[in-house]
Amino acid sequence: MSHSDVQSQILEAFNFRHATKVFDPERKISESTFNTLLETARLSPSSFGMEPWQLLVVQNPEKRELLREFTWGANGATNGSEGQLRTASHYGIFLVHTGMTMTHHSDYIQNHLKNVKQLPDEVVDAYGGFYQKFQEHDFHIEGDRQISDWAARQAYIALGNMMTVAAMMGIDSCPIEGFEMDKTIAVLEEHFGVDPKRYQPAVQIAFGYRAGEPPHPKTRRSMDEVVRWVP
Ligand SMILES: Cc1cc2nc3c(=O)[nH]c(=O)nc-3n(C[C@H](O)[C@H](O)[C@H](O)COP(=O)(O)O)c2cc1C
After folding, report:
1. Which atom of ligand 1 is nearest to the CA of 214?
2. Residue 143 CA, ligand 1 centroid: distance in Å
3. For the segment 173-210, what is each residue's pLDDT rounded down to a tens digit?
4. For a tag site, which of 57, 144, 180, 182 has the least CB within 10 Å?
5. What's the pLDDT tens digit per position in 111-167?
6. Using 50, 70 and 90 to split pLDDT, how confident is the model at 215?
């Protein structure tokens, strides 16, 4: 395939993707296609390679319903439809790590460096030291909220990659920040077995096939506003 073919396919996918408000409830994404999307998330980069997130896939309609009341960005409240929660083929919640698991001496980090990244013991200590300096000195990432916000930034990379690849495969998606954080945390703890001390919800994501055409054409700032070339 020529370079210009690839360029036009990429731009086609970016123009195809829109924040889909309602999906065709009858059309399901095949298992192998969805696994490809999951793999793009798993292979996404993260700062220091710490992978500080987990995607909770919620396919059980009753479980989705537990979230619906306070998930105003996916319950059709803004457009009078059934919304993404009820119609999406696949629905995920990105959970992000907290201060408890993301400080350099935590079990999670130690296990991650040794057993996932497979660093030798002497490198684990040096790597942990760099990571600690980055958090405490360079970026001032202190306290639970800042740590989970930093973790969320890593999750959003995976989110973006999933949506792009979905669009390249003709699959629609919608990222969801329209939810009440406190109520979501409480339901996740009570009904989904998510320990809020270890994991906090950051963003949600719906995938499926659009039920109709996008409600409006894409609008964006001009390239001049978005990019400034330093002379
Ligand atoms: C992080 C994030 C959260 C979003 N949350 C919601 C949401 O809760 N509900 C919704 O319908 N759209 C949501 N959107 C979609 C945006 O409104 C949409 O991407 C933006 O208006 C641009 O439109 P387009 O994606 O169709 O090009 C969200 C987008 C992002 C990136």
Report:
1. 26
2. 28
3. 999 999 999 999 999 999 999 999 999 999 999 999 99
4. 182
5. 999 999 999 999 999 998 999 999 999 999 988 999 999 999 999 999 999 999 999
6. confident
- Could you state, in order of their start, the residue ranges of all structural domains in the chain? 8-226
Nearest CA to 40 among 137, 159, 150? 159
Please write down the HEC assignment for all residues of 36-101: HHHHHHHCCCCHHHCCCEEEEECCCHHHHHHHHCCCCCCCCCCCCCCHHHHHCCEEEEEEEECHHH
Q: Which of 159, 176, 221 to mutate to test the pocket of ligand 1 (most atoms within 8 A of CB)?
A: 176
Nearest CA to ligand 1 atom 29: 175
For a mutational test of ligand 1's pocket, the pick from 71, 79, 174, 210, i.e. the residue with the most ligand atoms closer than 8 A to its C-beta, is 174
pLDDT at 105: 84
Cut 0.85: pTM above it: yes
User: What is the Å distance from ligand 1's center to 175 Cα?
Assistant: 6
Choose among 205, 204, 98, 92: nearest CA to 151. 98
Of 3.40.50.10330, 3.40.109.10, 3.40.50.300, 3.40.50.720, the CATH number of 8-226 is 3.40.109.10
